[in-house]
Amino acid sequence: MKKATALLLSGMMALSMVGCGASDTATTEEPTTDTAAEAEDTTSAPEGGVTIQVTTTYAGEDTNAQNYKDAVAAWEAETGNKVEDSSATSDETFKSRIVTDFEAGSEPDVLFYFNGVDSNQFVEQGKVVSVDEIRETYPDYASNMKDDLLGASPADGVNYSVPVNGYWEGMFVNKEVCEAAGVEVPTADTTWEEFMDICATIKDAGYTPIACSLQEVPHYWFEYAIYNHQDAKTHNTLPTSADDEIGQAWAAGLNDIKGLYEDGFLPENTLTATDAETFQLFTEDKAAFLIDGSWKVGGIESAVDDIENFTVTHVPGMGNRKSTDEIGGLSMGYFITRKGYDDADKQAACVSFVEYMTSDEVVSKFAGTSVTALKNGAKPDTSSFTALGNAALEYAGSFTGISPAVQDNLNEAARAPIFGDMASIVKGSVDAADAVAEVLSIANE
After folding, report:
1. Residue 347, H or E segment
2. Would you identify the CATH topology of the domain 23-166+329-385?
3. What integer best gives the mean pLDDT of the chain?
């Protein structure tokens, strides 16, 4: 069984320099506890142990899916508590499920979730507990973290979650498909126009240029398509109207995706296929390119026999965006819900679990070389890095600009006119500018 490589984002330290804008096949090995067991448990669990409900996005092809299972098993063994886990891959369906659970009063005790607009309603409804409140009883809670990186809620500027590791989004490449089609792997110097020529050549050779499900995960291409009409300083800004400069950039980016669809550069079933199906095209040497997050490194490692055949590179840019200007940040963290915290039997166990999962040792294992909020920094073990892992490490160290994903500034309802109806946009039955206007109308309600 290949070891998943948790590397990511050494170049994210550039955040302090670029002024930017200031988010799946798990292995079946039995959990091991060698590294995770070394983490300190600073909170005593109730005598006899309790069961807490936990939901995360550490599932499917996430690089850290197995690391998460190992850490949970280690915490259970150390504390005598148990985790009832309902983790799932992060997509719009997952977000809908979480919202529905909160509305029904069936939210978990601990939730690993998005810090931005997606969690605003939980904050506004008083259903998650602030770090400051937890510290009133547990003063050492998240004391190993830099407070200014904890991910303050846009709703009130207060910290509610404790992060683990950062992320980046990049373009994974199947080198065998590129070689068979007679094209070079794109580099930081490849322009968007040159990339379109590369895609045309790959299509003519009988391969799918881009593995993407517009039906299920259109957001990666959305981010970079609109980024290509902006820059690192403006990307994480919502339009005020469909007619302003940013609104026009969004419409232009959507029309670029429409162009990819019309040119046949996406899978024939991109409007109905699942992400798993299009990912399979990529790993089975039928598609050349895949935009996804840093967590996908482990999914690719687990899905293929020859990892030397895969690499990651920059999404070709245009205009003011350099190809080395990337999407990335610290967008998620562990929340303790009011439901879990106010349960006298579960409170200490919930705090213990989050402290364990965000300890220096566990964060280092999850983060690899990514940016973290740790005061002492991550201490990764790079001995097991694969060829793809090393390529990703090099990639993460070459960023010239970084911006968070702007979609995180929109709630699920506001994203729907674009993400939920991408088929109508690329088919031309809905004008891109009209879709942007509808997004803003819902966002401003």
Report:
1. helix 347-357
2. D-Maltodextrin-Binding Protein; domain 2 (3.40.190)
3. 87
